[in-house]
Prior knowledge:
This protein is mainly α. 83% of the residues lie in helices and 0% in strands. It has helices spanning 3-17, 20-29, 35-69, 71-95, 117-148, 150-179, 182-192, 195-207, 213-241, 245-265.
Amino acid sequence: xxxxxxxxxxxxxxxxxxxxxxxxxxxxxxxxxxxxxxxxxxxxxxxxxxxxxxxxxxxxxxxxxxxxxxxxxxxxxxxxxxxxxxxxxxxxxxxxxxxxxxxxxxxxxxxxxxxxxxxxxxxxxxxxxxxxxxxxxxxxxxxxxxxxxxxxxxxxxxxxxxxxxxxxxxxxxxxxxxxxxxxxxxxxxxxxxxxxxxxxxxxxxxxxxxxxxxxxxxxxxxxxxxxxxxxxxxxxxxxxxxxxxxxxxxxxxxxxxxxxxxxxxx
Length: 266
């Protein structure tokens, strides 16, 4: 595989992961969480990921597997791999304590409550660790998509980046209120996003020697499952918790429409 293709996929994954820094910056330069903006953004991200998973990624996985195994067996393996991806990301979520789960919604203004500094610091550190673990499969998903189709990889990277913004808030705000150090809080949030490109590199190193049409098809179908789970279990519930449920649905529809148009014109 060409070096430029691999480099482009890695840079897209790096961009998506380091979007946690955007959330951190928003937390420090705003007094109040913009729930409308985040709800629309999260809905948009979910719309992009759900549409592209079912319309593009699963289709490509099925074509790849059917070419090797035949239509029936290829379709069965596509479906099995899709649900295996869901199970994989669900197990990761299950292993993360709910208090430190990066998808437990936190607002900037809520963090001013007088919790103990030790408790806030623990919350921030464990959230950073949880996000680091959780972002490994997300990094692999973005990287795999970008290797196969750079335009598709760009769309997924943008969607994952939007999804990472609230995670940056969830890490940096409690650390800031515990330490009073903006730089430390920002760096912890920023560095947690590095787990995404690290996950991509580890996945690439492990899987590339075995990469063929079957491996690609299984991996791509699993990526679709990962992204659908992220959308349904994390993005839309988070938007609902922000109290702007209808806006998140409008964002979801816009995300689907934008993804549909982009696939048609590219």
